[in-house]
Specification:
The protein is α+β, with helices and mostly antiparallel strands. It is built from ten helices and 17 strands. Strand 9 and strand 10 form a beta hairpin. The structure holds S-adenosylmethionine. InterPro entries: RlmKL-like_Mtase, SAM-dependent_MTases_sf.
Length: 312
């Protein structure tokens, strides 16, 4: 059985900065039983694994993987395998806007959570409880997962709709766009939603405060929760709430929204909130932490990390 080398993509180098190889190693380690080896060739970096060829489409879904090569003697032969995603890649990468979560990091969050859930992605549902303009939900559709996002910014669905209309026109993609209201709306949650469906999967973007998630979601539960939380102070009318204050209030609702056997991946700036404070916010809610070493420095003031939790 040949070994396979997975090329670390320039996208991953850009997303994870100096820690790209470490993040890739941690992500791959969650997907295979034997520890990968690191291999450099000029400027290219690879992770080498001993797996059957049938495992490659799954491994090519890892956020760092550009492609796979079979190692035969001194030669590395490209393998014609694909990750088998739905929809065109620019469904996720196409729109650029301020505050967008890096697409590669978003894919990492989904993968880390999926590695904890022992069912195929196509059977699962995903929630992003702070969904912004929808990067996680769009990724979920590429994996074949039905998804729901909650975002407080009322402009978000307007922007999402504009982006989707542009994209479907460009790709002549058959689709359905609809709007509605969730049945039960509490004082803090606006409850209006935009829904997009194509290729048998859908994403619903609900406007509202994530603190009211249980009502906005009509008590539905999800197999995967993946989200990138704000890296600074949130403006709420005239008051201001830190990311941690919002998360402390929202955590019980998020935990309740996670189905048994499900997993939650939260990206955060570990300077604010600190990991220990974030963990504390989720303590006593029936979730257990899964250690994962994917922290990477983005700038002097942002050391991005991921908290991975699962419900047994
Ligand atoms: C880091 S951004 C997420 C960006 C998103 N992943 C994307 O790519 O578009 C965090 C988001 O959380 C939203 N947010 C903050 N507090 C919230 C709350 N209480 N309820 C709902 N959304 C909230 C912010 O408006 C912001 O859009």
């Amino acid at each position: 059985m040949p070994k396979y080398a997975l090329l670390i993509s320039p996208r991953a180098e850009a997303a994870y900065f100096h820690q790209a190889a470490e993040v890739a190693f941690a992500e791959l380690s969650g997907a295979v039983d034997v520890a990968p080896e690191v291999l450099s060739h000029g400027d290219m970096r690879f992770l080498v694994v001993d797996v059957a060829e049938g495992a490659l489409p799954g491994l090519l879904r890892l956020s760092f993987a550009q492609g796979a090569f079979a190692i035969e003697g001194d030669a590395m032969l490209p393998v014609a395998q694909t990750p088998g995603f739905h929809l065109h890649p620019d469904f996720v990468w196409g729109e650029k806007y301020r505050g967008k979560t890096n697409e590669t990091l978003t894919q990492l969050l989904i993968n880390l959570a999926l590695q904890q859930v022992d069912r195929p992605a196509e059977e699962l549902t995903l929630l992003d409880p702070m969904s912004g303009r929808g990067t996680t939900c769009l990724w979920a559709m590429r994996y074949g997962m039905r998804s729901v996002g909650i975002e407080q910014d009322k402009q978000a669905p307007v922007d999402i709709q504009r982006g989707l209309k542009k994209w479907t026109k460009l790709h002549r993609q058959k689709h359905k766009l609809s709007e509605g209201w969730v049945q039960k709306v509490n004082k803090r949650g606006a409850g209006k939603y935009l829904e997009f469906a194509a290729e048998g999967v859908s994403a619903r973007f609900i406007t509202g405060d994530t603190v009211a998630a249980r009502d906005l979601l009509q008590r539905k539960r999800f197999d995967v929760i993946a989200t990138d939380v704000p890296y600074g102070v949130q403006h709420q009318g005239r008051g201001q709430r830190s990311a941690l204050e919002v998360l402390c209030e929202a955590a019980p609702g998020w935990a309740e929204s996670l189905a048994p056997g499900g997993a939650m991946a939260i990206a955060f700036n570990s300077y604010q909130p600190k990991r220990v404070a974030l963990l504390e916010a989720f303590s006593g809610l029936g979730l257990e932490e899964v250690p994962v070493a994917v922290a990477h420095r983005m700038s002097e003031s942002i050391l991005r990390d991921v908290l991975l939790l699962r419900r047994g």
